[in-house]
Every structure is written in structure tokens, then in C-alpha cells.
């Protein structure tokens, strides 16, 4: 008996066409790939020419600007293809052109709508610079500039040393820590509803001064624990003091609290100090002072 030897012969069908079929399968795969690429290219061209053209603009969030104003600021109009637009560039352009937009997000809503999602900029202070005023948002964005006087209802801030003021862009200061402190104070004043703060003087960061209702000066000190201090002082001037009181509040510390000095007491203190100063001058030049006093008595 001969040994059986197995050989690896290719399987063929009754007509012997296995090799041919394998070649056709390879050809079909290439055909499918080319067809897919062709269709994808056609769809890409159509999506940027005939399909997905803008027919409507909508606004969500804060409606401070109309859809038409937003589209005009972005430089787009109906009929533009939404997939040919760089949304990030359009968003930057809107934030710059329409200053009271704090943030904007543009969304495509197929097949033909472009949606603007808007967050309004919150004006928190009027910053003095070069004899003019600029309205700043809660994030330091310049909303308006070159104003001759501050806007009522928000604090005027002096001593900021602003170096860069351009509408639609963030303000810059020679001392950016001052700007940061002023924004923290102004935002907190807005958040806690501390109304009638007319002035924040940050010329000296260690000795910040505020003005309330045009009748109470506040020696605030540093910005340390500013939120607690503002809430404490708000309670003092709006609840504990008479609504007609005039004078000065001096904040000491969390343990010592604050003291209030009436205007007449401040005047008496100033007069006393003035008399003491005059007295010291008289000591230095008694003859002239006596002559002056005699002249005053004669005139009376």
C-alpha cells in the first residue's frame, strides 16, 4: 500500500473559477472604495454650495441685540452657506463689534438655521482715565469709553491708572492688581445689592475709600476679606444708621467692627486740629499773630 500524501490544492468549483472569483472580489472592494470617495466628495461640495444655506437667524439667552444686528455684526446674511463659515471667528467679531455681548456661541441647526446664544455683559463700574470715563463689565471688558461723566447707578472708580482703553476689549492698567481689586469690589457690590455706592477710590490699595449715597465716606482699608467687609458696612449704613445720617465710617477689623463719626464731630475735630496748628504757628511768630488778632477785632 502506498502512503497517502496530502497536497494543498486550491479548491475549485465545478467550473474551476475560484481564482477568478478572488480577483473579482478584490476589484469589487476597490470599486466600493472609489464610489464612497466620489459620493463623499460630491456631498462635501454640495454642503458648501447648494445645501445648508442659511435661511433663518435666531437668538437664545439674553435678547439685547436682534438676530439681524448680530448677523450684521458678524458680516453674514441669508443665503450664506453655514458650513463655509468659521464660527469661532464670527464669535470673536461679534464680541468686539457689539460691546454689550459678554459671550456668544453660534450653533448650526440643520438644515438652514444659525442660532446665536448670547450672554449680556453686566456693567459694574465707570473707570476714570485721563479725565474721561469708561464703562467696564464684570470681567473688565470696555463697554463704552470717552464719557465725560460717570453713569449713575454704578460706582465711579478712581485711581486705576488705566493704560489701555478700547471698546470691545479688556481694559489694562499700569497696576493690574488695582484693576483686579476694583473688579472684585464692584462685582461684590453688585452681587449683594449694595446700592448707592457712588465712588471707589483705589489710589492707595492699602487705604481704599468708598462713598455711600453722597453723604457717608467709608474708610475701607485694604481689600482683604472684602466680601465680609462690604456686607458688614452695608448692614451698618442701611439698617443701623439713620437714613439721613452724614459722616464717616471707619472699618477697623472683624473683631473691632467699624465706627461712625458724624459730620459735625468731624468738623469739630478739624477745627480743633486747625486751632492746634494755628497755635503752634503763633508760638513761632507771636508778634505778627497778635497784630492780626487786633486787626480782626477792629474790623469786627
Low-pLDDT sequence parts: 276-300
Radius of gyration: 38 Å
Give the topology string: H per helix, E per strand: HEHHEEEEEEEEHEEEHEEHH
The SS-based structural class is alpha/beta
What share of the residues lie within helices? 25-40%
CATH topology of the domain at 123-264: Rossmann fold
* Mean pLDDT across residues: 83
Q: So, the CATH homologous superfamily of the domain at 123-264?
A: Cell division protein FtsQ/DivIB
- Report on the biggest sheet: 9 strands, mixed
Proportion of residues in β-strands? 25-35%
Quaternary organisation of the protein chains: single chain
User: What is the CA-CA span between the terminal residues?
Assistant: 158 Å
Give a written overview of the molecule:
This protein is of the alpha/beta class. Among the domains are: 56-120, membrane protein fhac (Ubiquitin-like (UB roll), Roll); 123-264, Rossmann fold (3-Layer(aba) Sandwich), CATH 3.40.50. Helix content is 39%, strand content 26%. The chain has 7 helices and 14 strands. It has helices spanning 18-47, 67-74, 87-97, 176-191, 226-240, 263-284, 286-299, and strands spanning 56-61, 101-109, 113-120, 123-129, 132-137, 142-147, 156-158, 162-164, 172-173, 197-201, 208-212, 216-221, 247-253, 257-262. The protein has a 9-stranded mixed sheet. Strands 1-3-2 form a 3-stranded mixed sheet, with helices on one face. A two-stranded antiparallel sheet has the order 8-9. Helix 6 (263-284) crosses helix 7 (286-299). The longest helix has 30 residues, at 18-47.
Amino acid at each position: 500500500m502506498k502512503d497517502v500524501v496530502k497536497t494543498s490544492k486550491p479548491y475549485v468549483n465545478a467550473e474551476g473559477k475560484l481564482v477568478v472569483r478572488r480577483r473579482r472580489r478584490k476589484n469589487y472592494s476597490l470599486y466600493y472604495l472609489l464610489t464612497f470617495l466620489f459620493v463623499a466628495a460630491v456631498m462635501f461640495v454640495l454642503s458648501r454650495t447648494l445645501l445648508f444655506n442659511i435661511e433663518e437667524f435666531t437668538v437664545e439667552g439674553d435678547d439685547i441685540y436682534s438676530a439681524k444686528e448680530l448677523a450684521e455684526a458678524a458680516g453674514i446674511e441669508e443665503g450664506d452657506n453655514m458650513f463655509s463659515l468659521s464660527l469661532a471667528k464670527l464669535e470673536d467679531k461679534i464680541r468686539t463689534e457689539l460691546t454689550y455681548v459678554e459671550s456668544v456661541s453660534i450653533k448650526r441647526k440643520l438644515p438652514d438655521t444659525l442660532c446665536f446664544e448670547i450672554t449680556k455683559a453686566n456693567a459694574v463700574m465707570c473707570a476714570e482715565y485721563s479725565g474721561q470715563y469708561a464703562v467696564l463689565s464684570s470681567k473688565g471688558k470696555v463697554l463704552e469709553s470717552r464719557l465725560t461723566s460717570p453713569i449713575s447707578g454704578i460706582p465711579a472708580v478712581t485711581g486705576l491708572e488705566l493704560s489701555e482703553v478700547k471698546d470691545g476689549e479688556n481694559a489694562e492698567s499700569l497696576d493690574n492688581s488695582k484693576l483686579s481689586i476694583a473688579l472684585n469690589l464692584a462685582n461684590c457690590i453688585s452681587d449683594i445689592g449694595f446700592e448707592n455706592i457712588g465712588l471707589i477710590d483705589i489710589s492707595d490699595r492699602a487705604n481704599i475709600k468708598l462713598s455711600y449715597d453722597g453723604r457717608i465716606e467709608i474708610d475701607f482699608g485694604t481689600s482683604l476679606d472684602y466680601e465680609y467687609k462690604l456686607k458688614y458696612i452695608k448692614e451698618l449704613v442701611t439698617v443701623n444708621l439713620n437714613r439721613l445720617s452724614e459722616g464717616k465710617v471707619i472699618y477697623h477689623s472683624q473683631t473691632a467692627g467699624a465706627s461712625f463719626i458724624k459730620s459735625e464731630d468731624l468738623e469739630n475735630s478739624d477745627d480743633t486740629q486747625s486751632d492746634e496748628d494755628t497755635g503752634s504757628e503763633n508760638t513761632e511768630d507771636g508778634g505778627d499773630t497778635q497784630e492780626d488778632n487786633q486787626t480782626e477785632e477792629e474790623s469786627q
